[in-house]
Amino acid sequence: MSGIDTDQLFKRKAFMLAQTYFIKDNQRELLLHAHKYDFDILFFDQMVDFLQACAVSSNDDLFVVDLDSLYSLQKDRDNKTMFLSELLRQLPQCHRYVYLQTSRQGGRFLLQRTLVECNCLAYAEKPISNESLVEKLFNLFTQRRAPDASLIVALGRGFPFNRDLLNTARIELLEYQDVDSFNQAVKQRKPDIAIISEVMFTKMPAVQQVIRLNMETDPSLEIILHQTKMDAGAATRAIEMGFDDLLIEQQDPNITTRQLTNRIAKIRINKDLINKDRATGLLNKIGFKRKAQDVIHLADQRDNLALGLCVIDIDKFKTINDTWGHYFGDIVIKRLSLLLGAFMGPNDLLSRFGGEEFVMLFWDIQRTPLIQKLNQMREAFHQLPFEVEPGDIRHFSFSGGVAFFPELKSESDLFLLADEKLYDAKQGGRNQICS
């Protein structure tokens, strides 16, 4: 992979429509915080200027509207009062918006409904500190990552699911007609949901229990009975035997599919709470270990396909915290997480193990190309400008260690060797990769 243009990657923009006095009182401090996160805020106090800027903006940008600025525009040229919903619909429909409102406005449910109906990405109540607002905007930037892919395995025939809707939601559906293949898929692929048709349940009522009692089965797996129409007797028996829920077939297959996508969305949220780092959105130690074991198992089945595990650590991070504070240290960590993510392939794993330590597992890559990629990442991070004070730009670095599969066969052995190599990189002068 060639080097990444860090200016293009990190110089995102937030377009803000607000009243003149708000801009005058807050612009300097907001910009100071935003530049630490390496994004810019463009301020507008006129609707026409804001609309023109939105028209030429990027899909990666954010758009912030202070409702107070719209209330001041509620008189048209003929001095007629315009409803807020009319003003909101003047905003380009191709974007979603972050709305700022007072706590009094936030207590009106009908207003919140209007915001939701008018392309609301998120809303927040004032007063909100400039530091907090910038951090929340940055979190919205990071949340735009595509969700993790999910898997549903189904036992039976003729499930009326819309494949296009599932694919759009990054959900893979695998259907099996025999219980042995279905059982193997549950063990090896670790799906999020297992669906069993009422026909297969009638033939083999114990199928759910066989899956559930296997020690290799993920205890969070949801097992659902699919019925073509509501059968109270079968439903009662299924629930008594440990099914988590029922899925009743609808006339419109899109409805049944939407029920599945909504359920997957909730499963993703619950898994994220367990498996992901709250500050960066990356896998945490628990989530990484679970996924790494599956990836290594899959590589082992494919004739020892090559993997590389890398442990990196920000150099002199304690000095960064002691000099500019933990708040600034968190900014360094978050921006590094974005940079690393830009280099990761769809089958690679990226995690924050804790503190300033990150662990990555790279899929199907040989030693030399991986070392080259890691050095590109290291150099790109070292080039990132951090504005610690107005006009005071600093640069930081990280060191890393690498280990390779199939030379080592387990996640724990790979990590221990990579961590040992990281120690060599630190002892050897930092800002380098050792293997």
UniProtKB/TrEMBL annotation:
Its EC number is 2.7.7.65. GO terms for molecular function: diguanylate cyclase activity. It catalyses: 2 GTP = 3',3'-c-di-GMP + 2 diphosphate. It is an enzyme of class 2 (transferase). It holds the Pfam family GGDEF. InterPro entries: Diguanylate_Cyclase, GGDEF_dom, Nucleotide_cyclase, Rev_trsase/Diguanyl_cyclase. Residues 305-435 form the GGDEF domain. It comes from the Bacteria. This is diguanylate cyclase.
